[in-house]
UniProtKB/TrEMBL annotation, chain A:
Family designation: Belongs to the sigma-70 factor family. ECF subfamily.
Domain RNA polymerase sigma factor 70 region 4 type residues, every copy: 131-182
Keyword Lyase appears in the UniProt entry: no
PANTHER family xref list: RNA POLYMERASE ECF-TYPE SIGMA FACTO, RNA POLYMERASE SIGMA FACTOR HI_1459-RELATED
RNA polymerase sigma-70 region domain: residues covered: 35-104
UniProt keywords, alphabetically: DNA-binding, Sigma factor, Transcription, Transcription regulation
Organism: Erythrobacter rubeus
Record InterPro entries: RNA_pol_sigma-70-like, RNA_pol_sigma-70_dom, RNA_pol_sigma70_r2, RNA_pol_sigma70_r4_t2, RNA_pol_sigma_r2, RNA_pol_sigma_r3/r4-like, WH-like_DNA-bd_sf
Signal peptide limits: none
Name the UniProt record assigns to this protein: Sigma-70 family RNA polymerase sigma factor
Automatic annotation (TrEMBL), chain B:
Coiled coil is among the record's keywords: yes
Biased composition (Basic and acidic residues): 242-271
The protein, known as: Uncharacterized protein
Chain intervals for the UniProt region annotation (Disordered): 104-123, 242-306
Organism (species): Erythrobacter rubeus
């Protein structure tokens, strides 16, 4: 029999070591974490807000919070899980932006006006994308988050629940409602003849 | 699978909905994203200091204060609602506490505090012993009276506990809360009886050991005062002059105590002779001397059993 740590434990140790190095203001470690997680945070933020610039701002802010809080996070030792923590921060920032947007604008879906002539194929793809975005943006924000995390990012329910700081059962119930709402909206769109 | 379950089941990527959602692709991060973040860290404030340890003194003091207030409030509420009396905790009144501190005469206990829902006279039972105990017969008589009272009080306590348990179970049943089944209740009562038996056995052993010591003292010609055998209530002990004398007696060294007891016997003998003069003296002096009694002879102890 050999004694060794599991891959998960290794990942946790690695996270703890990275956070400790960031706390020591080691730029290389911070770059490593950006390389590992920034794209994911950006995708989550984009699908939550529907705005590429806002998504970049959210990803950047999440990373800078890691930089600021690394000394405190380092005290958690091996309990520190970098991925879920960053996703949680990014998701909360996205919620903040959506609420702020709701207070300052009535626009549901930003219409993208592109006056350049498009080939039929590109036009169809654009229409599909806008339809999907409209479907997602039609969901309440937490239901949208549940779909983004489990369908687009393929996170296990337990991890998605951790990101949203929910009990697993509550999250499963939320996901159940989100899927049902999404299907209803999709079927309604189809019945009306296609794209929203 | 019901329609609802089917509607809320996982989204298959190859389904129409899946293909539609698949069109919602996210753009790539713009170039130089990492460099911009690193550059942004340059102007950031210094890292936040490590959080203070959990046992901060101010926080601890605050928790202690909150805990003390909560405990005080609970205690006050329990006393106010009579819970402590129901479970047999005897709370002294403010007047009693004050009289204990100042050693002054306490005010009479209000009648409302004497009942406590117990059979009349249950807690007022006292053992009356007149004078010192100096023969084995007297001592055994004291033990018999003590046992009698102890039995009575033990039955009252058991009855009270049983009644509280019955009431609690009844209340739970009335409120629709889970209550023990008859079998479970039987088990609980058996365990309670076993506990009582063990406790009583231990007490009996200690008591018998102490009684043996008393018997030996009587056999050795020593006289026992009631306070030696029966523990007096603390507040009564401080109120009575004789109680204070006995306290002093207990604090003496064995030699001093023996000397004090010898002087006491001499005084008692002297007074006895004055009260019952020899026949020749009685002829000469027919008047009965009204000698002043000592505190010890005045004492009619009414105390709870051991």
């Amino acid at each position: 029999m050999t004694i060794g740590s599991t891959p998960k434990a290794d990942a946790t140790n690695e996270d703890a070591a990275l956070v400790a190095r960031i706390a020591a203001r080691e730029e290389a470690a911070f770059r490593e974490v950006i390389g590992m997680h920034a794209a994911l945070l950006h995708r989550i933020a984009y699908r939550m807000t529907g705005d590429a610039h806002e998504a970049e701002d959210i990803a950047q802010e999440a990373m800078l919070r890691l930089w600021d809080h690394a000394p405190r996070l380092g005290q958690r030792g091996e309990a520190m899980k970098l991925g879920p923590w960053l996703k949680r921060v990014a998701m909360n920032l996205a919620f903040d932006r959506l609420r702020s947007r709701g207070r300052t604008s009535d626009a549901d879906v930003p219409e993208r006006v592109d006056e350049a002539p498009l080939a039929d194929e590109a036009l169809a793809a654009e229409e599909d994308m806008l339809a999907a975005r409209a479907l997602m943006e039609g969901l309440p924000e937490r239901q949208r988050a549940a779909i983004v995390l489990t369908y687009y990012e393929e996170l296990p329910n337990a991890e998605a629940a951790e990101v949203l700081e929910m009990k697993l059962k509550a999250f499963e119930s939320l996901l159940f409602r989100a899927r049902a709402a999404l299907r209803s909206a999709f079927e309604a769109n189809e019945a009306q003849g296609g794209a929203a | 699978m019901s329609d609802i379950d089917k509607n809320a089941g996982p989204i298959v990527p190859d389904s129409a909905l899946g293909r539609s959602l698949g069109a919602y692709t996210a753009p790539d991060l713009s170039g130089g994203f990492a460099d911009r973040i690193i550059a942004a860290t340059e102007g950031r404030a210094a890292p936040l200091p490590a959080s203070r340890p959990a046992g901060s003194r101010w926080r601890s003091a605050r928790r202690l204060a909150v805990g003390a207030l909560a405990a005080g409030a609970l205690g006050t509420a329990a006393a106010a609602t009579g819970v402590l009396e129901r479970i047999g905790v005897d709370l002294p009144s403010p007047a009693e506490v004050w009289s204990t501190i100042t050693r002054s005469e306490p005010e009479a206990v209000p009648a409302s505090r004497q009942g406590s829902g117990l059979p009349s006279g249950a807690l007022d039972t006292r053992i009356e012993i007149e004078g010192p105990v100096d023969t084995p017969e007297e001592l055994e008589e004291v033990f018999r009276r003590v046992d009698e009272i102890r039995e009575e009080r033990r039955d009252i306590r058991r009855e009270r506990v049983d009644r509280l348990i019955d009431d609690a179970i009844e209340r739970r049943r009335e409120q629709g809360l889970p209550a023990p089944t008859p079998e479970r209740e039987e088990q609980m009562r058996e365990r309670l009886d076993q506990f009582r038996e063990r406790r009583d056995t231990t007490r009996e052993q200690r008591l018998e050991q102490r009684r043996e010591e008393y018997r030996e003292r009587i056999e050795n010609g020593e006289e026992l005062v009631p306070q030696d055998i029966i523990r007096e209530r603390r507040e009564e002990r401080f109120q009575r002059p004789v109680g204070r004398r006995l306290e002093r007696l207990r604090e003496m060294s064995p030699e001093e105590r023996r000397d004090a007891i010898r002087r006491f016997r001499e005084r008692r003998e002297e007074m006895s002779q004055q009260l019952n003069p020899a026949p020749e003296e009685r002829d000469q002096e027919p008047e009965v001397l009204q000698a002043p009694q000592t505190d010890a002879f005045e004492m009619q102890p009414e105390m709870p059993p051991e």
